[in-house]
Amino acid sequence: MLEFLRSGSNPWGEVLAVALVVLPALLAGWGMLRSYRGRRQAEEQALGPLPPGDAPDRDPDGEALYTGTTHGGSRAVRVTAHGLFGRGPAVYWFEEGRHLPPAEPRLPALVFQRYRGPLVRIEAIREIGLVGAHAGRVLAPRRIVVVGWRLGDADVDSGFAFEDVALAEHFADRAAATLNVPPDRGPHAA
Would you list the domain boundaries of the chain? Predict the structure, then answer.
């Protein structure tokens, strides 16, 4: 059978050989895409919508590499809902709380947006930590800031990687101060 497929006088043999290689790859890709879409839809229903918010009308406070969002406590199981799965450059803003006008009080927040990604507004941070690995991204120790927050009823962790430790510590300290994170839940907790 293989000699028939390999013979130079049989063009259908080459077509069949290519189909035997390409078809399984296409089926595997289709299966993975279908699985991802199903998981994303289930998570979007379970987690609920992203907190509403608009980008501040000023320049971003900084830029970092968004490493992804994982389910709380996990450093590998990523959230697929709402476009939080992707990894890439992101900009961020720190917003101080405001109480005026009374009809629109705003809590302090960390707002970030990955390029071509959703705008995410985090108002209630559980904890902030400095680590060396998050969501499959591994760097030197203390260069990734992991921000633990709530999305719907679930705890999730979003990671932001920086070029050096000083930038990561500055981001973590500013986030902890802006969002009133207790010291035992902050970046320097023992």
Answer: 2-47, 62-185
Q: What is the pLDDT along the chain (190 residues), one digit of tens a residue?
A: 556 556 666 677 777 778 888 888 988 889 888 877 787 788 888 888 888 778 888 999 999 999 989 998 787 788 888 888 888 999 999 988 765 555 566 678 899 998 888 899 888 888 999 999 888 888 888 999 999 998 888 899 999 999 999 999 999 999 998 888 888 888 877 5
Please give the C-alpha separations between residue 138 and each of 76, 132, 144, 156, 186, in angstroms, as whole numbers: 11, 6, 9, 19, 21
- CATH number assigned to the domain with residue range 62-185, chosen from the 4 options 3.40.630, 3.80.30, 2.30.29, 2.40.30: 2.30.29
Model's pTM, two decimal places?
0.76
Determine the Cα–Cα distance for residues 139 and 137; give it in Å rounded to an integer.
7
